[in-house]
Structure formats: structure tokens, C-alpha cells
């Protein structure tokens, strides 16, 4: 049972897929909003700022600004490399940590899971296990104190502020109760978690910097500030805009009773993750959008992987289910296509 979903059948199942090809065999319920949650009565816990994160994020964004200044001085190959690193990093989050590991919206064979884990490490947004845990909590307790980036606390908090302060106690408490057995069983996820610090040093900082400096003689400073630090900051902010802007600006054609919105600008920047009213209404859809590949490079990537035999069992919501839902709970702004 997948709550009105259907499995896209254009890929032929490979009977030789082994036990490591963990996917969506089980019912995923931890990404469904919990209507029974109630905030605890009494005074709110004090806000505790993590000054180390404040300093590091400030330095990163100042470095990114300097990287923008250096763009005209960079070699064309370096700019191409920076875009490639951006795309790889983003896919590690969108196709990997989000649609595969958080929602189990499709299955990925071992080579694809390894590629996505490497790409996710380049993005440096916490390891896959922690990212998926927090994202499931975000869906299950959306816009409450148990939501790690509760948008009801304002744009800044939802965008970056949640990373600059200690988590609300409810986030920690509810996060411990989520079913994460599928993540524990995934050898790729647990390998990345065990070796995360060494891997982020290599994939997020060393590789993006060294490749243009070593292979085509780019300046070390341009290599460091453009494809490394600027690219890293851009990927972070593209992801954060899904938590902030896509929860505040846009229409709600599928469910007007929830905060997430449809935001095409965020979808373009986050390679397909801005159709957020749809996604929170149907979190198990592998495309995170009713309209497939439109403004959605992540869906294109997953479809390509399916064509190559590296992915399968993509879950989609039936057109009848979508129509019924938008007529029942939508804000009237639905447009087909």
C-alpha cells in the first residue's frame, strides 16, 4: 500500500538485484504528518546559539562573495568544473538523501547508491543518516516545535538559523522515535556515516580545489574560492530555500491547509525541489512534482538511471488521486501542465 500511488513500469525489474538493493519494499509512514502532535505547555526552552557554526557560516559566505568577484578571472574549464560540482552536489541531496533515502520513492542499485553517497558527501549537509532522519521529522511534524527547520519561526530560522542554534528538545525527542531501520541496514549509508569527516574533507574541499589547479593550471586561489567555496555556499542556499521560501511564497493547489507552497524559482535553483505543496501532500512520489521533468533535473536524472538499469520501482501518484485531492483541499490555483 502506498496511499494512492502507482509504480512506474517502464523499467524491467532485474531478478539478480541482491539484498543490498534496499528500496521501497516497506510502507513508509514516518514522512506522513502526525496530527496527534501537541506542543508541551509551559515556558519555551532558552535559545542557545552555536557560535562555532555562526563563525563558520559567516566565513563561508564571505568567501563565497570573494568567489563571485573572482569569476571573471577564472578559466572556462574551471567554470564548467564548478557547474559540474554544483550539479553533483545537488543530486547527492535531491536524488540521494531526499528522494531515495528519506522517502524511499524509488530503488537504487549499489553502484548508484555509491555514486549518490559520494555526491552527497561533496554537498556537506550532514551525513545521509542524519539528513534523512531530520527530513522525516520535518514531514512528520511539519511547522511544529518538532520540525528541525520550523518555518513558523520565520524565514531566517527556516533558511539557516536552525543550523546556528541548538535543536529544540522536541526535535531530539521525536527524532529518536522514528523508524530508521532501513538506514541502519544500508551499508553505503553507514559507511559514509562512519567515515564522514574524512570524506567531506576529500570530496567537498580537496577534490573541487585540486582538479582545476592540477589538471589545467588554474590559480590555486580561484580553484579554492570558485568551484570549492562559492559552489558549496550556492548548494547550501539552494537547499535552504526549499525550507524557507518554498514554505512561505507561492500557491497551494493541492492542500491549502498546509504551509508548503509551489515555487518555480526555488524548483529551478534546487533542480526540482520547489514543488513543495505537492511534495508535502504526496511525499512518496519520486518526482516530487505532478509534472514530471518540467523544471525538474532530478527527475530527469532518476529516469536516466532507470533507463540504464541502475534504478527501478519509481513511485508516482495516479492522476485520479491528484485530481481528487486538488478538488477537495486545493486553493483553486491548480493548472494542468
TrEMBL record:
<keyword id="KW-0812">Transmembrane</keyword>
<keyword id="KW-0443">Lipid metabolism</keyword>
<feature type="transmembrane region" description="Helical">
    <location>
        <begin position="79"/>
        <end position="101"/>
    </location>
</feature>
<keyword id="KW-0560">Oxidoreductase</keyword>
<feature type="domain" description="Fatty acid desaturase">
    <location>
        <begin position="79"/>
        <end position="284"/>
    </location>
</feature>
<feature type="transmembrane region" description="Helical">
    <location>
        <begin position="199"/>
        <end position="216"/>
    </location>
</feature>
<comment type="similarity">
    <text>Belongs to the fatty acid desaturase type 1 family.</text>
</comment>
<dbReference type="Pfam" id="PF00487">
    <property type="entry name" value="FA_desaturase"/>
</dbReference>
<protein>
    <recommendedName>
        <fullName>stearoyl-CoA 9-desaturase</fullName>
        <ecNumber>1.14.19.1</ecNumber>
    </recommendedName>
</protein>
<dbReference type="InterPro" id="IPR005804">
    <property type="entry name" value="FA_desaturase_dom"/>
</dbReference>
<keyword id="KW-0256">Endoplasmic reticulum</keyword>
<keyword id="KW-0408">Iron</keyword>
<keyword id="KW-0444">Lipid biosynthesis</keyword>
<keyword id="KW-0479">Metal-binding</keyword>
<keyword id="KW-1133">Transmembrane helix</keyword>
<keyword id="KW-0276">Fatty acid metabolism</keyword>
<dbReference type="InterPro" id="IPR015876">
    <property type="entry name" value="Acyl-CoA_DS"/>
</dbReference>
<keyword id="KW-0275">Fatty acid biosynthesis</keyword>
<dbReference type="InterPro" id="IPR001522">
    <property type="entry name" value="FADS-1_CS"/>
</dbReference>
<keyword id="KW-0472">Membrane</keyword>
<feature type="transmembrane region" description="Helical">
    <location>
        <begin position="222"/>
        <end position="242"/>
    </location>
</feature>
<feature type="transmembrane region" description="Helical">
    <location>
        <begin position="50"/>
        <end position="73"/>
    </location>
</feature>
Amino acid at each position: 500500500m502506498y496511499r494512492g500511488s502507482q509504480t512506474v513500469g517502464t523499467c524491467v525489474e532485474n531478478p539478480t538485484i541482491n539484498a543490498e538493493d534496499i528500496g521501497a519494499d516497506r510502507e513508509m509512514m514516518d514522512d506522513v504528518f502526525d496530527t496527534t502532535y501537541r506542543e508541551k505547555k509551559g515556558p519555551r526552552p532558552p535559545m542557545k546559539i552555536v557560535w562555532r557554526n555562526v563563525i563558520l557560516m559567516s566565513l563561508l559566505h564571505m568567501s563565497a562573495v570573494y568567489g563571485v568577484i573572482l569569476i571573471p578571472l577564472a578559466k572556462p574549464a574551471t567554470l564548467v568544473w564548478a557547474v559540474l560540482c554544483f550539479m553533483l552536489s545537488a543530486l547527492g541531496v535531491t536524488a540521494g538523501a531526499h528522494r531515495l533515502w528519506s522517502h524511499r520513492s524509488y530503488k537504487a542499485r549499489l553502484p548508484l547508491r555509491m555514486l549518490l553517497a559520494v555526491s552527497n558527501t561533496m554537498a556537506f549537509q550532514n551525513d545521509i543518516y542524519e539528513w534523512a532522519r531530520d527530513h522525516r521529522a520535518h514531514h512528520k511534524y511539519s511547522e511544529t516545535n518538532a520540525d528541525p527547520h520550523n518555518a513558523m519561526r520565520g524565514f531566517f530560522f527556516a533558511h539557516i538559523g536552525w543550523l546556528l542554534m541548538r535543536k529544540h528538545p522536541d526535535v531530539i525527542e521525536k527524532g529518536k522515535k522514528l523508524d530508521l531501520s532501513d538506514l541502519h541496514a544500508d551499508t553505503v549509508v553507514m559507511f559514509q556515516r562512519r567515515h564522514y569527516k574524512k570524506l567531506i574533507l576529500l570530496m567537498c574541499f580537496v577534490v573541487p580545489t585540486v582538479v582545476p589547479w592540477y589538471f589545467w593550471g588554474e590559480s590555486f586561489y580561484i580553484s579554492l574560492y570558485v568551484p570549492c567555496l562559492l559552489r558549496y555556499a550556492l548548494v547550501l542556499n539552494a537547499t535552504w530555500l526549499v525550507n524557507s521560501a518554498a514554505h512561505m511564497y507561492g500557491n497551494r493547489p493541492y492542500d491549502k491547509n498546509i504551509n508548503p507552497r509551489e515555487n518555480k524559482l526555488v524548483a529551478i535553483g534546487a533542480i526540482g525541489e520547489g514543488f513543495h505543496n505537492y511534495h508535502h501532500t504526496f511525499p512518496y512520489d519520486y518526482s516530487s512534482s505532478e509534472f514530471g521533468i518540467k523544471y525538474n533535473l532530478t527527475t530527469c536524472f532518476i529516469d536516466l538511471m532507470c533507463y540504464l538499469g541502475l534504478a527501478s520501482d519509481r513511485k508516482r501518484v495516479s492522476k485520479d488521486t491528484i485530481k481528487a485531492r486538488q478538488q477537495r483541499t486545493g486553493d483553486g490555483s491548480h493548472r494542468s501542465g
